Amino acid sequence: MWTRRGILFFVFTIVLTLWAYSQHQQRFPRPEFETGYEQPDATTPEPRSGAVELIDVLVLTLALSGGVWLALKKRSRKGILWLSIFSLAYFGFFREGCICSVGSLQNIALSLFDPGYAVSLNVLAFFVIPLVFALFFGRIFCGSVCPLGVIQDLVVLKPVKLPHGLQTVLGLLPFLYLGFAVLFAATGTDFIICRYDPFVGIFRLGAPFHMIMLGVLFLLIGMFVSRPYCRFLCPYGVLLGWMSRFSRRHLTITPAECIECKLCADSCPFDAIEAPTGDLSAERTSKNRNRFIVYAILIPVIAFAAGFLLNRAHPYLAKANSTVYLADLLVTQPEMQFNTENLDISTFMASGKSLATLTEEADAIRHSFAAGSWYLGIFLGLVFGFTLLNQVIYRRREGYTPHKGDCVSCGRCFDYCPVQKHAENTNHE
Asked: How many CB atoms within 10 Å of residue 261?
């Protein structure tokens, strides 16, 4: 068993290791991929000193530790709410939403595939530390610390419950977003998570019109469909959900035995609470077994088919890269090299680089997309296949329990549980 002192020592060791790692890595600015790439202004962080970066990491660690204490020990929804407001103020509006854990996975992906790029302390820490906490305590980061999640959580007015089938389909979108974000980052094409961050424009109180409208749209939807970005789009949430499934100490609805009143399930706006199950009939068990066998056989077929289809589409995906786009443009329309009004072409011509060199670079990027699209297709095929398989797997449950992968540890269920209220009244007496 992990003691509190052991956990704190483990977290401190991670922070210290990240700091030491950053001191031995070459510091690079945000990636400048190829001619014509323009990083979104709304997501470009201001230069910070090493001391400020360390403060950010310490605040992140302390906030997560506070979230663990409030959710698991204190069991206080009010405390979690105030902590989340602080996190929104600090990481959202004061730090202007950057660097954030959600976008940091792109930096990690780029550093893994580009030996010339190294991540800094705060990027690496913001990526790793929430995952470590999720592995031990569940998605504390989502409920208490992430500014993207908090800003949606505060606008929930009258949440509606979506049909299970619709939730299952929408739940595939984060995997799709994660896969393409990693592919585009690894090939040096774009940081699409940052480019289409719906809330960074609100945090910075200034962004292109479409960015502001995207954030407003998510908040309007979030008034009735709780945390739409977190549940149906956030790519980092996929990783947190995976880690949280293995958490040994996760938020529980009741401090004692569940009386199955269902109040917690009705109160959860995220449909993250699973109902108790009975015994399956012999007929249902037989059907599930047969479907399980069929789906298990189909999974590798689906994965291969998805990989093949995306690989065939890689020439079109590669056109998102500015180098590939520019090479195709100049090869198919040679007269465009004299177009001085095109900034990309003018920059290329001024660089002194030959068209042959540009074409070679574009071919290398296409090759990366060809390989990457295979892996992406296989990944998405496996996700789809295991989603099907999960529909026929029976897990017996006693009482209402939070789904470890979906529960964001917001603590709303505390206030609705009569067992929790009885325990509080007993303690007061």
From this structure: 14
Contact 178, 108 (CB under 8 A): no
- Mean local confidence (pLDDT), 178-188: 95
Domain identity same for 167 and 289? no
User: Does residue 41 sit within a domain?
Assistant: no
Question: Among residues 155, 29, 154, 148, which one has the least CA distance to residue 93?
Answer: 148
Mean pLDDT value across residues 328-351: 79
Q: Report the pLDDT value the prediction gives residue 415, as an integer from 0 to 100.
A: 84
Mean pLDDT of the residues in the chain: 83
Q: Is the pLDDT of residue 20 over 60?
A: no
Encoded tokens for 333? 């329309």
Residue 230 lies in a domain: yes
Give a three-class secondary structure readout of 129-180: HHHHHHHHHCCHHHHHHCHHHHHHHCCCCCCCCCCHHHHHHHCCHHHHHHHH
CA pair distance 142, 63, nearest whole angstrom: 12
325 shares its domain with 371 = yes
Look at 6 and 150; give whichever has higher pLDDT: 150
- Residue 116: how many CA atoms within 13 Å on its side-chain side? 7
Q: Determine the structural domain holding residue 344 and report its residue range.
A: 282-390
Site of tokens 């996929």: 238
Q: For residue 274, list its beta bridge partners.
A: 401
Residue 402 DSSP symbol: E
The helix (H) or strand (E) run that includes residue 87 is helix 77-87
Pairing of strands 401-402, 273-274: antiparallel
Instruction: Using the structure block, give the residue that is written with the tokens 């939730």.
Output: 167
Kindly state the tokens that stand for 227: 């945390």
Strand partners, 27: none
- Per the structure, the count of domains in the chain is 2
193 and 294 housed in the same domain: no
Q: Which two tokens stand for residue 376?
A: 């992406």
Q: How far apart are CA 226 and CA 205, in angstroms?
A: 23
Hey, how many other C-beta atoms are within 10 angstroms of the C-beta on 390?
11
> Amino acid identity, residue 324?
V
**Sign of the torsion angle spanned by Cα atoms 80, 194, 269, 271:** negative
Question: What are the Cα distances from residue 58, in Å, to 51, 122, 126?
Answer: 11, 10, 10
Q: 296 and 382 share a domain?
A: yes
Report d(CA 285, CA 124) in Å as an integer.
46
Distance of alpha carbon 363 from alpha carbon 359, whole angstroms? 6
The beta strands (E) that lie in 275-408 are given as 401-402
